[in-house]
Design goal:
The chain has about 625 residues and is mainly beta. It has a domain of about 200 residues. Helices cover about 5% and strands about 40% of the residues. The strands form 9 sheets. Strands 2, 3, 4, 5, 6 and 7 form a 6-stranded antiparallel β-sheet that branches. A hairpin with a 2-residue loop joins strand 2 and strand 3. The longest helix is centred in the first third of the chain and has 12 residues. It is globular and about 75 Å long.
Length: about 625
């Protein structure tokens, strides 16, 4: 039956002229594992509940996830798949027991030598959705030094092998890369399929013991042309440390385009744990050297007379701390002239120039100037070191901790946590405070401590998404809420999970994900970033994905939502008359299934656009 959209539009328009709409966020369940549903690309392959790992999403709304299968003909040799796409357009990117992407090495499949557990669990994608698949591979001629590999699957392009265990280590005399070539959580991959990777080496000129040990390296993996970034034991002379050697760390590795940043350790006479940590980048480096040291533990901070990087701890970094212009974001513990009231700061470095964005002891709008005795007079202690992130336009989102102004420590008793943003111009806004009523929920719900639990992400359009612990003592229930904020729309709840079974009224988590009250909603958090300077849980243009579940009923889902580009003041105003009214609805319905009424930017006009239009009903914001 064909829908008469003209009649539908007329009917709805008549109703809309007399009422306003408050439409909840429109989530789309894209994968549901309940023990009976088939994988959308594997007929007969039943998705095992609670086997889906964190989903990732690109700017076109394509989701990539690894999931376990069961059913007839499914064994441990072929049960894991990497699923990618969106509703109606799913494909199996890789599968245990199936040929490796690109078909090289010839005859190889994702499996261990015993025929099980091939595919690695991490979902690593680039900005445009290219997939880095890795794990154990097995085939003719396989050996202990030939049994892992990484493969890149460009979105819409031809897959290729990035690296295989035992490949030659670049920049050495005959050494090979002997680590398992398996992508890990937090590894970053760019649109070219490049990854920054630490590896052990063996053979050739490898020295394993003594002062000349050089049996590890940091390599930029590139198809057919791997690049040695730094090898253990390299002389520090070229970097201003004669007589010392440098060992790159195997953690804290960042990639933006083909530029890198990482931490390392100095080794040699006079070096102690108080001054051995250094931080290196290829941004702004001398081309002859390729790297520069931009900070060292214990050194003075250029431009800030009297301040040093305290030698009591290393620097802390955000999810993707290195911007495309070379700016590096970090939190430093300050020494020298700093004292207990101001000895920490959120800082940036760019080509040798340092700036302080926020410093311990700073006033916080809505807290320091509050009339509430729980907050009045309190100042910034510091952001949580795992929960601060900046977008390409300079907007910093952070989960903060505040303290008494005399530096006596975290406020006790609670509340002591908050969430805020800082614009590129330096304006700080407090979005929510521990103990505040939860925006959009019934009376009694307040924000609990959010320290270390926010998993923030941010789009380039300025949409900030994070998780907040919530509690309602009136009904003996607690849980979490996924919150979104932007300067145009303010703070709102995107999803809610109830994790308590104590309430006499029953759990109150959202039912739109599983059909039952969900008890967990999970963002990918700090490991969700790519090698192009973006986040993989919330794309740069506003596509968000998460996991939701009702574990009591063994129901698990992956969902997505488009949060849009808030830089467009009124995208639902399709006829550009300054308001969203019946004529705009008519335009949208007439364009159904085409791009003519596309509000959310996904290329088609559908129910998501209709919901966006209805929620924007009325005059456009000025």
């Amino acid at each position: 039956m064909r829908t008469n959209f003209t009649l539908v539009a007329a009917s709805i328009s008549a109703t809309l002229t007399t009422m306003a709409f408050a439409v909840p966020p429109v989530w789309e369940n894209v994968v549901v594992a309940n023990g009976t549903n088939e994988a959308p690309s594997v007929p007969g392959g039943i998705m095992v509940p609670n086997s889906m790992n964190n989903p990732v999403i690109d700017g076109d709304g394509n989701i990539t996830i690894r999931v376990q299968l069961a059913g007839a003909g499914i064994t441990t040799a072929n049960s894991r798949i990497i699923l990618t796409g969106k509703p109606g357009a799913w494909v199996t990117a890789a599968r245990d027991g199936s040929p490796v992407p690109g078909g090289f090495p010839t005859g190889y499949v994702f499996n261990s030598t015993t025929g099980i557990n091939g595919l690695a669990s991490s979902n690593n994608i680039s900005e445009n959705g290219g997939i880095l698949a890795s794990g154990n591979i097995n085939g003719a001629g396989n050996s202990a030094l030939l049994d892992t590999g990484m493969f890149f699957l460009p979105r819409g392009g031809t897959p290729f092998m990035v690296v295989r265990e035992s490949d030659a280590c670049p920049g050495t005399a005959g050494a090979i890369m002997s680590s398992a070539m398996t992508a890990g959580s937090g590894q970053q991959t760019n649109d070219l399929g490049q990854s920054l990777f630490p590896t052990a080496t063996t053979g050739g000129d490898t020295v394993t013991t003594g002062a000349g040990a050089n049996n590890s390296a940091l390599v930029l993996l590139t198809e057919g042309a791997d690049q040695l970034i730094l090898r253990k034991g390299v002389s520090g002379s070229a970097y201003g440390y004669p007589g010392l050697t440098i060992t790159p760390d195997t953690f804290g590795l960042w990639l933006t385009g083909s530029k890198v940043a990482f931490s390392a350790k100095l080794v040699g006479a006079g070096v102690t744990t108080a001054n051995d940590a250094i931080y290196m980048t290829s941004f702004g480096a001398n081309p002859k050297v390729g790297l520069r040291v931009w900070a060292r533990e214990g050194d003075a901070i250029p431009g800030f007379g009297g301040l040093t990087f305290a030698n009591t701890s290393s620097l802390s970094f955000s999810q993707h701390p290195m911007a495309n212009d070379g700016t590096i974001l970090f939190i430093a513990t300050l020494g020298g002239s700093a004292d207990a009231t101001n000895n920490a700061a959120v800082m940036t470095e760019k080509f040798g120039t340092f700036n302080i964005l926020m410093r311990k002891g700073d006033s916080i709008p809505g807290i320091t100037d509050s009339t509430d005795p729980n907050f009045a007079g309190k100042v910034l202690l510091q952001p949580n070191t795992t929960a601060f992130v900046k977008n390409r336009n300079g907007l910093l989102a952070f989960q903060g901790i505040f303290m008494n102004p005399d530096g006596s420590g975290i406020v006790s008793p609670a509340p002591s946590t908050f969430f805020g943003v800082r614009t590129a111009e330096g304006v700080v806004t407090t979005i929510l405070r521990q103990g505040d009523p939860v925006v959009g929920l019934a009376a009694g719900w307040v924000y609990a401590s959010i320290n270390g639990s926010t998993s923030p992400c941010i789009s380039d359009a300025g949409v900030v998404v994070f998780s907040a612990s919530i509690i309602n003592t009136t009904i003996s229930e607690d849980g979490s809420a996924i919150m979104a904020w932007d300067a145009t729309n303010g703070l709102r709840v995107l999803a809610k999970a109830s994790s308590s079974s104590l309430s006499p009224f029953g759990p109150t988590g959202d039912t739109n994900f599983t059909g039952t009250p969900c008890n967990a909603v999970t963002l990918i958090g700090s490991t969700g970033n790519n090698g192009d300077g973006g986040h993989t849980g919330l794309s740069s243009n506003g596509w968000l994905t998460l996991r939701a579940s009702d574990s009591a009923s063994a129901l698990y889902t992956v969902a997505r939502i488009y949060l849009g580009a808030t830089g467009v003041p009124c995208p639902s105003d399709l006829n550009a008359d300054g308001s969203v009214t019946a004529p705009d609805l008519s335009i949208l319905l007439s364009a159904w299934g085409t791009g003519g009424g596309d509000i959310n930017g996904d290329g088609t006009t559908n129910a998501i656009d209709l919901a966006a239009l209805l929620s924007a009903w009325g005059a456009c914001p000025q």
